Amino acid sequence: MDFQTLVFYFFSAVLLLASLRVITARNPVHAALFLVLAFFSAGGIWMLLQAEFLAITLVLVYVGAVMVLFLFVVMMLDINIDRLREGFWSYLPMGGLIALIMVAEMVLVLGGDYFGLEAMPAPQDPGPGYSNTKELGRLLYTDYVYPFELASIVLLVAMVAAVALTLRKRKNLKTIDPAVQIAVKRDDRVRIVSMPTEKQ
Question: What pTM was computed for the model?
Fold first, then answer.
């Protein structure tokens, strides 16, 4: 077993343990920090697969922006943990059944002959002049341009839906109606008065 395989197993073990702690931690702040650790471990696995751009994007975007924002939101909100855990035992049989089905599917996939180091060897060294970012951009904007545009539309719809869901009308809140602003005429706001000149 070479050094790269040992590093892969180390990152995989950390990723599995951190993912398990995300859903089992009682404190939501601790769960968010374990999710950060899981993202770092996934980035390390991407680096082993020679996908440097994806690894750096995962760390910068998810850890550096999304998770920090999520952590601030969790710390600012007064979350009642006891209230969230009410009814946990009533959902346990269904959750256990789904977990068993997922474990059986993973065993079938990972135990197959088409999965393993022999069936999926490590990527070959592309050479010193190869640019991972350039190749990813070429594929993204040529072969996968329509799925890329579709994903951007889905994200735009999700952003508009999030704003629409959180938009609430509150009392004693001064708001401006854009339709009223556009319909304003000059004569309604400005009045020109003719006055006689005054002599000194």
Answer: 0.59
Q: Are 15 and 43 in contact (CB under 8 A)?
A: no
Instruction: Give, as one character, the DSSP assignment of residue 102.
Output: H
Give the dihedral sign, CA 68/70/71/75.
positive
Question: Which residue matches tokens 């035992």?
Answer: 89
Instruction: Name residue, tokens 């760390």.
Output: 59
3-state secondary structure of 114: coil
- Residue 99 contacts by C-beta under 8 Å, 6 or more apart in sequence? none
Per DSSP, 185 falls in state -
The phi, psi pair for 92, rounded to 5°, reads -65, -40
Show the tokens assigned to 72.
């601030």
Q: Read off the pLDDT of residues 47-106 as tens digits, 9 standing for 90 and up.
A: 888 888 888 888 888 888 888 888 787 777 766 666 666 666 787 888 889 989 998 888
pLDDT tens by residue, 38-49 = 999 999 998 888
Which amino acid, residue 179?
A
